[in-house]
Amino acid sequence: MKRWLARYWNVLRRPSVHFSLGFLTLGGFIAGIIFWGGFNTALEATNTEQFCIGCHEMYSHPYQELKDTIHYTNRSGVRAVCSDCHVPHEWTHKIARKMEASKEVWGWLFNTIDTPEKFEAKRRTMAEREWRRLKANDSLECRNCHQFDSMDFTLQSARAKQAHSTALVADGTCIDCHKGIAHKLPEMSGVRLR
Predict the structure, then answer these.
(1) What gap in Å lies between CA 66 and CA 183, rounded to an integer?
(2) d(CA 103, CA 86)
(3) Is the dihedral of CA 165, 168, 172, 177 positive or negative?
(4) Neighbour count for residue 93 (Cβ, 10 Å)
(5) Residue 47: which of 79, 73, 90, 86 has the closest Cα?
(6) How many whole angstroms separate alpha carbon 168 and alpha carbon 14?
(7) How much is the pTM?
(8) Which end of the chain is least crowded, N or C, by CB within 10 Å?
(9) CA-CA distance, 135 to 175, in Å (whole number)?
(10) Inter-residue contact 142 to 178 (CB < 8 Å)
(11) What tens digit of pLDDT does each residue of 15-46 get?
């Protein structure tokens, strides 16, 4: 094995006999562009609603719950898709989230939430994981659309005005108060929601 690796290493470091340095550089540059374009295309394809609800677990549970919320149907006609709330828009945060989400593929492969009963049994664990993630990143995904400095507190209800003013001063984050905004809350006995 060691000889095999040494032989191929020598092939890689030896100068090209048939191609010029310019051709190899240009070829590497073009191959890099093709790779980068393909990578970004695949990355964006995984951010579509069709991709997210492509498996029956997501279509039959979370997506159906989303359809009953203001993030799906509202007076302004702006609809949030799965990736708007579960994937940051900024590239570095997006890549980190995609790497983290690759663990979720194992759950799909091993059918950990493929029935309503299994989904309900894991709902609280999944919800708490998302809440921790959103708390840790200061509700970055929410803030892609909702900004405190863009809010007109005079148009809000007294309760919302009080909560948003307090959160603004106390460095609160959206998920502190808005758990269950797009999906049904899990069984929360024994837990104090803020």
Answers:
(1) 6
(2) 14
(3) positive
(4) 14
(5) 86
(6) 61
(7) 0.74
(8) N
(9) 6
(10) yes
(11) 777 888 788 889 999 999 999 999 999 999 99
